[in-house]
Each structure stands twice: as C-alpha cells, then as structure tokens.
Please model this.
Amino acid sequence: PEDLPHWWERIQALPNPLRRCMHELGMFSGLRPGTLVSLERNWVKLDQRAISIPKMKSGRNFNLPLSDHMVNIVTRALELSETLYPSAPWLFPTRSSKDQRTIICTQVWREKTLPSETGHILRHTYRTIAQREGIDKIEARLLLDHTVPGIDGVYIRERALFDRLLAAQEGMSLAIRGLLEPTATD
Model:
C-alpha cells in the first residue's frame, strides 16, 4: 500500500486511456485479471451499481458492487470502449496483434513498463487494504468472490448482503483513494 502513489503516477503515464481505466478498476475491485479483461459491456448495470458477471472462477455468478468512484471508472471505460471499438462487446477490447483490423478481448493484463505491478498483484493489494481497514473478513471474501469457509458458507446469501457489500466497497474505495492521492476527498 505504501507504494501506491508511485504506482498511480506510472499508471497515469500509460499512453492508452482504456488500459489506465482497466488497471484502475483492477485496483479498486480486486477482480482476478482474467475476469477483469473479459468484462462485457452488457454486464454493467450502473442503475444497480453492479457488474453482473455470469460465471466466475468459482463457477458462480457474481455481482460486483460498484462504489461511486468505481461507477466513474466504469463510465469512462464504457465511453472509451464505445468510441474506440463501437462493435466490441467487451469493456476493455483491443486490436489483435496478428490482424490489426480484428477486435478482441484484451489478452494481456500486464504492462511491459510495470511487469510486476499489474495483474494479480492488485488483488493481493486490495485484500491487504481490506484487512488494514478492518473490513469484515466474510465481506472481504465475498467482495473478492472467494468462498466462505465452514457453516457460514452454507448459510450466507450474498444477494441479501449486497447493501453491506456496497458499503464495504465504498469504504475500500475511500481507503484506496487515500493511499493513491492522500489529498483526494471525492
């Protein structure tokens, strides 16, 4: 977490604004990189403040709660992807390296200039910040689409906790923004 201001400066220096949004959403969501790059536009439900992902690594569907800041990130990404790649279904599309005319789902989530600072490490950072902030352990697990162990995992229904998860996500966004830009108040 202490390295985040430097990381943030380097992310903001990336020439591709859509990739900047991708890494920012990765940091603020803790999504697995493979899920992040495969997000589809039609999964975004801004009116519900969620991205409804039909199948995660866990095999379940997942409603990622979107904090106010995350709504702003996703809105920017939607505008950029619709402008740059109007017919692509993905939130973070790109051009194929084999055929520049072909639009594909982004395959590479690491940056050559930041090889160990993008991708799965953002998930680790998210979880570390959640622990530092005192986010309830079960809520932190649910925000990352981890299974809840023991009998709690049998009885807990994530849909019924969406409001609490959204509140926890708001807290996470405030904490992350405080680490990225110590003077941020939005």
